[in-house]
Amino acid sequence: MRMSMISVTEAIAKLRAGNIVAIPTETVYGLAGRIDDESALKQIFHIKERPFFDPLIVHVADIAQARRLSNGWQDIYTALAEAFWPGPLTLVVPKAEVVSSLITAGLDSVAIRCPRHPVALEILKELQIPLAAPSANRFGRTSPTRAEHVEREFEGQVDVVDGGQSEIGVESTVLAVEPGEKWRVEILRPGGVSRTQIQKALEDAGFQFEIVRATSAAAPGQLKAHYQPGCPVVLIENKPWTAELKAIIEDQLGRKFGHASILPLGSSAQIAARSLYENFRDLSTYNDCLIVALRTPDNSGHEWEAIWDRIERAASLRL
Ligand code: TXA
Ligand code: MG
Asked: Which range, of 125-139, 159-173, 205-219, averages the lowest pLDDT?
């Protein structure tokens, strides 16, 4: 075991003392710190090299803890939380006074989720203090889905609890819900819970609603260049991969590539999501490489929404 790998017990003690620790979640690994400690929060931004205008997600042990962080909790939040928590859904809700503006980047809303990875849940239940945790990667880079990814990203500078491979592999779905004639459910970031699952849960709970996808500009922190691996990614729409296409890309990007790797996607969105970031990392270890993502009718159904969102954000070029 390497120096920076720590046990759950050690992680709880360190977090309680105001240190930051990388913890496994079912989506990706998070860089966690207690929400009531300003220096822990500042440390998260510092280590990640994250700008203060990008708000953090608060992780809670249960719905009761989430409600205490909001001054405008609604029944529809309870319905969504009951359907998907613990799990990969983040709710943006009106924030209570106790939530530091460092977490929310000065917004009057706070993003909250209850993760279902057993290690994350155990830590949260034991601590009884919510944890702010962005993905445990440097700002703009690929999120980690294994403890070793965190170690490599921060060169052993951050303590990590090893919880194995993240089961989902892409970040949580971030939702904002606005009241109106009917509820307006806005997907700020597609992720581990699909639009169809949200639709079904709200229908079953008897709500009148519409689901819309936020435009990139409207969602804070949803910068276009994000999730970038170490070598360029190109997105090819419904075309076979050919030498001519490679020449066009080299011309447009203004450089030659010794190696072009086709991103393995397969036919299961679930499996593709789980290994997406790891594939980005592995393929980036070649020098002079190009990562090619081939979008076809077979891999573009609604359950692929989060995957193509991440590939689009990572891509330097789309043809
Ligand atoms: O799956 C996940 O959500 C992971 C794990 C660690 O839980 N966390 C994660 O955090 O992806 P991060 O910081 O990489 O992404 C947080 C996203 C950002 O896009 C941010 O803009 C958005 O949540 N967000 C946070 N607070 C918000 C708010 N008050 N309003 C709108 N968006 C918010
Ligand atoms: Mg992130």
From this structure: 205-219
pTM of the model: 0.95
Nearest ligand 1 atom, CA 133: 6
Atom of ligand 1 nearest to the CA of 104: 29
Spatial distance between the Cα atoms of 136 and 53, rounded to a whole number of angstroms: 17
C-alpha gyration radius of the chain: 20
Using the predicted structure, report yes or no on whether residue 169 has a pLDDT greater than 90. yes
Closest to 291 measured CA to CA, from 251, 244, 249 = 249
Question: Which residue from 23, 53, 90 has its CB within 8 A of the most atoms of ligand 1, so it is best to mutate?
Answer: 90
**Residue pair 156/4 in contact by the 8 Å Cβ criterion:** yes
CA–CA gap between residue 76 and residue 204 (Å, rounded): 12
For 239-289, what is each residue's pLDDT tens digit? Answer: 999 999 999 999 999 999 998 999 999 999 999 999 999 999 999 988 889
As a dihedral over the C-alpha atoms of residue 190, residue 79, residue 77, residue 66, rounded to 10 degrees, the angle is: -100
Whole-number Å distance between alpha carbons of 145 and 278: 7
- CA-CA distance, 5 to 161, in Å (whole number)? 6
**Cα–Cα distance measured from residue 298 to residue 319, given in angstroms and rounded to the nearest whole number:** 18
> Using alpha carbons only, what angle is made at residue 188 by residues 104 and 193, rounded to the nearest 5 degrees?
110
Tell me the CA–centroid distance for residue 88 and ligand 1, in Å. 11
Output the ligand 1 site: residues, CB below 6 A: 25, 27-28, 30, 54-57, 88, 90, 92, 104, 107, 109-111, 115, 133-135, 171-172, 174, 188-189, 219-222
